Amino acid sequence: MSEHQPVLLTEVVNGLQIRPNGIYLDLTIGRGGHASQIYQNLKTGRLLGFDQDATAISSLQSWVKQRPLASLYHMNFQYFPEILKQLGVEKVDGILLDLGVSSPQFDVPERGFSYRFDGPLDMRMDQRQSTTAAHILATSDLKTLTQYFREYADETFAYPIAKAIVNQRKTQLLKTTLELVNLIKKVKPAKALAKKGHPAKQVFQALRMAVNQELEVLKKVLESATSYLAVNGRLAVISFHSGEDRIVKQYFQSLTVSQGQRHGPERYLPVAAIAFKKVKPYPMLPTQKEMQENHRSESAVLRIIERIIDEK
Ligand SMILES: C[S@@+](CC[C@H](N)C(=O)[O-])C[C@H]1O[C@@H](n2cnc3c(N)ncnc32)[C@H](O)[C@@H]1O
Predict the structure, then answer these.
(1) Labelling 191: which of 38, 207, 275, 279 has CA 20 to 30 A away?
(2) Does residue 146 sit in the same domain as residue 64?
(3) What's the total number of domains in the chain?
(4) Domain boundary among 170, 186, 211
(5) If you measure from the C-alpha of residue 97 to the centroid of ligand 1, how many angstroms do you get, rounded to a whole number?
(6) For residue 41, is it within any domain?
């Protein structure tokens, strides 16, 4: 099985300004690449790792056994506040969200995330959940499918692809990744097929986001994550496509905008209410070297926010 190379590792670890006695949450622990580095900076603090994928959690069992300051939780990150309540933790010093799918998830055909291999149309990060990509393709109406492809992945041929899916399922349901790839290839005109990038990339991304309700949980977790940050605590978010990054960017902007900045007067927060600052005014991106060594880092965008005053 492929390993996962952590993206923007130095930028994340430096950006979190880890305190040896701090409490840190890695809400997307995956194969533990970022978590291992965070852990190395702890002396008496704590690291709580979350992932909704059972294979990610089981791959880290022996790692966590040897690390007394670390613990693992197999759950959707939107529920992390329940764990903090159980532990009696009121504030934390740093939170990491490294969004999306890990290399081992992509590279196992049975998970159904990849258009490169034949596999079932699954795409669930949490295999305890019942909705799969096949279920969405079999049950969503034309309008909903079109919206998914257009809004989650900017697919130019959203409507004709959705229409072909709805027609196809009248005779036979789509069950495998390659059946879907072939359908997409039949719908797209030769000019579109000749373009750089796999013709099924957008539809697969959109379906994955729909199956895992990625944007909905992202919006929820950003709010709860910022509410749990201690003063000087930082939230780092790595996103991998424009839909995700837009949500992060706009949310960070709404928390940090001050009088005199560019939004209309109705959007101004009184200066006293500004409890956060952006660690850098611009997003952090991988270097050329990182992109060459790990092509999955190419679309990564890191944004970090810091709480500067406590909640009233
Ligand atoms: C890009 S990988 C993280 C890789 C990790 N930083 C590392 O260095 O190995 C994203 C991980 O987040 C998990 N994930 C994505 N959305 C999640 C959610 N809503 N709740 C819990 N885990 C989630 C995925 O299962 C995957 O393992």
Answers:
(1) 207
(2) no
(3) 2
(4) 211
(5) 8
(6) yes
Boundaries of domain holding 156: 127-211
Q: Report the nearest-CA residue for atom 2 of ligand 1.
A: 102
Rounded to the nearest integer, the mean pLDDT of the chain is 94
pTM: 0.94
Nearby residues of 244 by Cβ (< 8 Å), 6 or more positions away: 99, 100, 214, 215, 218
Ligand 1, atom nearest to 102 Cα: 2
Residue 260 forms part of a structural domain: yes
258: pLDDT strictly greater than 80: no
| Ligand 1 atom nearest to 126, measured from its CA | 25
The pair phi, psi for residue 25, each rounded to 5°, is -115, 125
Q: Are residues 79 and 38 in the same domain?
A: yes
Cβ < 6 A, ligand 1 pocket: 4, 6, 28, 30-34, 50-53, 56, 76-77, 98, 100, 102, 125, 217
Of ligand 1's listed atoms, the one at least distance from the Cα of 76 is 20
pLDDT tens digit sequence for 79-126: 999 999 999 999 999 999 999 899 889 999 999 999 999 999 999 999
Per-residue burial over 193-220, b if 16 or more Cβ lie within 10 Å, else e, is eeeeebbbebbbbbbbbbbbebbebbee
Report which of residues 311 and 250 the model is more confident about: 250
Tell me the best of 2, 28, 75 to mutate to test the pocket of ligand 1, counting ligand atoms within 8 Å of each CB and taking the most: 28
Q: Are residues 191 and 269 in the same domain?
A: no
